[in-house]
Design a protein that fits this description.
The structure is a single chain. The protein has about 210 residues and is of the alpha+beta class. It folds into 2 domains: about 80 residues, Orthogonal Bundle (Arc Repressor Mutant, subunit A), CATH 1.10.10; about 70 residues, Winged helix-like DNA-binding domain superfamily/Winged helix DNA-binding domain (Arc Repressor Mutant, subunit A), CATH 1.10.10. About 40% of the residues lie in helices and about 20% in strands. It contains 7 helices and 9 strands; from the N terminus they run ααβααββαβααβββββ. The strands form 3 sheets. It has a 3-stranded antiparallel β-sheet. A 3-stranded antiparallel β-sheet has the order 4-6-5. Strands 7-8-9 form a 3-stranded antiparallel β-sheet, covered by helices on one side. The longest helix has 14 residues. The relative contact order is 0.11.
């Protein structure tokens, strides 16, 4: 029962990683049921991810196999485009899913530039494919400051913008901290260490 509760509390990104890892272990031939048994996640979760990766060209259908559960043919798949340990983040139709890309760009840019203003981070973190808005930078920095990932080196005045510095000692990995709402307000969850980092003592389950 405890394991079932833990599975339900996993983030979408973590479920994606678990399924992708299982697929890479069975790269030459597998069914949806095979991955379902190995991961113990919901079968609908496994199916939706596999079909989205078929649509994106990372997997392909190879034939049919008899399944033990229903004794009728089931599609088999194989991995044809292995992009490494990080799973592809795509929509159901296989197109790139850009949700969270802006924060990934901000998180990476903060480490590179060290000290910055809201406007500066907006400019440096934006790319031609994905523009970051100044309002989203303000919101993200506000919560990263609460969680201790950045600190203010200069307050805003009438003539100058507030300046921030990335706290290098708080770098936990390549994945950007996430903002989540739970009905009582927002909290900061760090997927690199798989825990809520603000507020302190926050519930890790989602």
């Amino acid at each position: 029962m405890a394991n079932a509760r833990k599975k339900r509390s996993l983030t979408t990104a973590k479920r994606r990683e678990i399924v992708w890892t299982a697929i890479r272990r069975n790269a030459d031939r597998f069914t949806i049921h095979d991955i379902f048994l190995e991961t113990e996640l919901k079968k609908t979760t496994v199916r939706d991810l596999i079909l989205s990766w078929v649509n994106s060209g990372h997997l392909e259908r190879t034939g049919e196999a008899m399944t033990a559960e229903k004794r009728h043919p089931s599609d088999t798949y194989r991995l044809v485009k292995d992009c490494g340990i990080e799973p592809p983040v795509v929509k159901r139709d296989g197109s790139p899913n850009t949700v969270g890309v802006g924060r990934e760009q901000m998180w990476r840019t903060m480490r590179i530039v060290g000290e910055f203003t809201v406007r500066g981070l907006t400019v440096f973190a934006s790319t031609e494919a994905n523009q970051v808005s100044e309002s989203s930078v303000k919101v993200y920095l506000n919560y990263l400051e609460k969680a201790g990932y950045v600190f203010r080196t200069q307050p805003a005045t009438r003539s100058t913008r507030a300046r921030y510095r990335f706290q290098a000692s708080r770098y936990t990995g390549p994945k950007p901290p996430m903002l989540r709402s739970n009905g009582r307000g927002r909290k900061v969850y760090d997927p690199n260490i798989e825990k809520v980092v603000w507020p302190k003592g926050g519930d890790d389950d989602e």
